Amino acid sequence: MKTRVTELFGIEAPIICGGMLWVTDAKLCAAVSEAGGLGCLTADQYTSGRELQDAIREVKALTDKPFGVNITLMKSFRITQETFMDFFKVCAEEKVANIEVSGLFATDFIPLLHAAGVRITHKVGAVRHAVKIEKLGYDAVIVAGVEEGGHPLSDNVATSVLLPKVAESVSIPVIATGGMVDGKSLAAALCLGADGIMMATRFLASEECWVHDNIKNWIVALNETDTELFCHTTLQARGVKNSVLQKVNELERNGADQSEIVRAVSGKKLRQALTDGDTEGAAFLFGQSIGRIREVKSCKAIIDDTMAEVAATLCEKAALMN
After folding, report:
1. What is the pTM of this model?
2. How far apart are CA 78 and CA 169, in angstroms?
3. How many CA atoms lie within 13 A of 25 on its CB side?
4. H-helix or E-strand containing 93?
5. Collapsing DSSP states into helix, strand and coil, what is residue 218?
6. Backbone φ, ψ for residue 121 (5° rounding)
7. pLDDT tens digits, residue range 196-254?
8. Residue 92 to residues 27, 34, 69: CA-CA distances in angstroms?
9. Which of helix, strand or coil describes residue 132?
């Protein structure tokens, strides 16, 4: 399949792995790229530009296919502004295929990245933000509906509504995320104006992902109703209902200080829970797509099955028109 996304990044399938803190490491990144998609490293799990550079070079040792880096520009207790700057400089030096930005706009870094031949995309949850990033010179826009795990915009617009509106409002390639999980998702996204999709939770439930099998098996058993929006007084997030989210909801109801809420959902706790397989040990920011993940597969099987299903789905629907 050829789309503006496959041409932009030089990949075979219009499928991108989204950034996931502690999850998208060199092994998973390389596996997605080797399978024909665009793998991803999450920069914010490293403490310096040098650490990120080592990880990028590890990916390059595992694959010669294109891959990207996710940089989430938000206030962090671990990462300084200088380190964020180093992340962008390293990505330019190493000439990665793409930088996926979320949070603040990376306006100052666009000339540096383009001079190095690096594409830059931004995840948005509103038409107004998509229009802005096109004006700023981004190469593509990632459209994130409220179904997504992580931090959906508090506008709370579903992908099925937001995606076609963005596609009608910008001329740059459009990537859909939020509820994207398989070939049917890709077919729907293409019909709504996207040039490709981004999947995150789906790749967490893959054989190449390092997290504990308890977490992967938990994802397979969960349903779409098992997530909820929370952290309404800080930065809205979607996560799986568990004791941590119950605690956060109680803190918000009781008017707790924001720092106390942030500590309850810390990334350090997430890393430990992913390692131990403790489903009650952290806030797991999974999307509603968990309701359609029913087995753990290799990254190659995920992408191959997605591409086979999108072809079958589109052909089947086209036949109805004859």
Report:
1. 0.94
2. 37
3. 11
4. helix 81-94
5. helix
6. -125, 160
7. 999 999 999 999 999 999 999 999 999 999 999 999 888 899 999 999 999 999 998 89
8. 21, 22, 11
9. helix
Give the pLDDT band of residue 76 (cuts 50, 70, 90). Answer: low
- Segments forming the whole domain that contains residue 241: 213-288
| 3-class SS of residue 67 | strand
Neighbours of 124 (CB within 10 A): 23
Q: How far apart are alpha carbons 166 and 189 in whole angstroms?
A: 12
Q: Give pLDDT, residue 318.
A: 84
Q: Contact 185/179 with Cβ under 8 angstroms?
A: yes
Whether residues 200 and 226 share a domain: the answer is: no
Q: Are residue 83 and residue 199 in the same domain, yes or no?
A: yes
Instruction: Check if the beta carbon of residue 220 is closer than 8 Å to that of residue 190.
Output: no
Span 165-206, pLDDT tens digits: 999 999 999 999 999 999 999 999 999 999 999 999 999 999
4-23-284 Cα angle (round to 5): 105
Give the whole-number percent of the chain exceeding pLDDT 90. 85
- 19 close to 200: Cβ distance less than 8 angstroms: yes
Q: How far is residue 222's CA from residue 76's CA, in Å, rounded to a whole number? A: 30
Distances (CA, A) of 309 to 147, 185, 190, 283, 289: 22, 10, 13, 32, 17
Both 157 and 104 in one domain: the answer is yes
